[in-house]
Amino acid sequence: MKNYIEETANYLKEKGFDLPEVGIILGTGLGQLINHLEIIKEVSYNHIPYFPTATVEFHKGKLIFGKLEGKKVIVMQGRFHIYEGYTLQDVTYPVRIMNQLGIKALLVSNAAGAINLNFKKGELMLIEDHINLQGSSPLAFKGVGSLGVRFADMSQPYDAQINATIETIAKNHNITLHKGVYASVVGPQLETRAEYRMLKIIGADAVGMSTVPEIIVANHLGLKAAAVSVLTDECDPEHLEPVNIDEIIAMAQKAEPDMITIFKELIKQL
Ligand code: HPA
Asked: Which of 6, 23, 114, 225 fits as disulfide partner to 103, beta carbons 3.0 to 4.6 Å?
């Protein structure tokens, strides 16, 4: 994989992706951050050698190099999920590329369901820790040892200092920001009532279908990492209603301005 990573990174360097400092993965309904970016260069995923091929749904996937608050950033507009049929190595390949290009920190956003019923839809949650329920690991492959330690430490996968900064930013801007544990499932089906009960019992505050693989690989590479969820629905097993994807997307969009404020301020302070 090492040679592929170098080749992909060299291609992007030639395209002008010149020493980004921070990598950002934009999740569901949070794409508007792009409008705050001074775009220097963008490349469609389909054109990047060894990148997972974008599916029809995600043909808009792009890697963008630009400036945000004066910092050079690389932004993934659209991410890969295992529920689309990608492997965990595919899903996390872009993180390895951003690392090869020189980022020092990875910031991630996602949409998640609230398991903790003190949290309301439309609010944000800072991820403090996670539970990997995707049944495998992005580090479980032959040759991982050539890219970093096999038995990667996960005692503090989310950077405490960045998280403290995010909390201060939220406070200063009067943004409600919960803190909690994010559990990642495979999806794409939503959870049953029994699964929601289980998630609560095992200590999850939110559930979603992404982020954990990317955070594991960021830690594998020694990158500082942080992630914020927008809570799009309340997963109450005793009063569960059929999922409404339109409402989930609408909730993600409702929280978008707060998410953008947090990310912009954070980039400024990093
Ligand atoms: N599960 C439940 N609700 C959600 C999810 C999920 O994975 N993602 C966004 N809302």
From this structure: 23
Higher per-residue pLDDT: 120 or 57: 120
Give the residue among 100, 86, 110 at the shortest CA–CA distance from 27. Answer: 110
Residue 111 Cβ inside 6 Å of ligand 1? The answer reads yes
Which residue CA neighbors atom 3 of ligand 1 most closely?
113
Residue 40 backbone dihedrals phi, psi, to 5 degrees? -100, -40
Q: Where are the domains of the chain?
A: 2-269
CATH architecture of 2-269: 3-Layer(aba) Sandwich (3.40)
Which helix (DSSP H) or strand (DSSP E) does residue 89 occupy?
Answer: helix 88-101
Contact 133, 206 (CB under 8 A): no
Ligand 1 centroid – CA 206 distance (Å): 8
* Predicted pLDDT at 244: 84
Mean pLDDT along residues 176-183: 98
- Assess whether the C-beta atom of 232 lies below 6 angstroms from ligand 1: yes
